[in-house]
Amino acid sequence: MRTLCSSTLIGEFFIIGFAGLVAMKEPDLTMGTVWTVSGVAMFLCVALCGVVTRPGGVLLGWALQIALIASGLVVPMMFILGVVFAALWWASVHYGKKIDEAKARFAAQADAA
Asked: Of the chain's two ends, which shows fewer C-beta atoms within 10 Å, N or C?
């Protein structure tokens, strides 16, 4: 699960950075505000890569997905990208758990043999 979820989060890292560049063109936002919010979100993406398998890690990932969708209020394209990445996050968690279970079964079979 860790590999799939981390891959999704690193993809989000780059998307958030590019969205920050687009948001800088908004006349109502200062560059400091844009990069503070974007920087915190980008840091969370990287930090979550390390804690995704710990208790609450997946839940924090879902909170990040909701924030990514909500960022569509500033950069409208983020509504679409947020939904796409939320779907990727679901798939990463869902199929990642299945892969982890299969690996555990194979390891148990190898130990028994």
From this structure: C
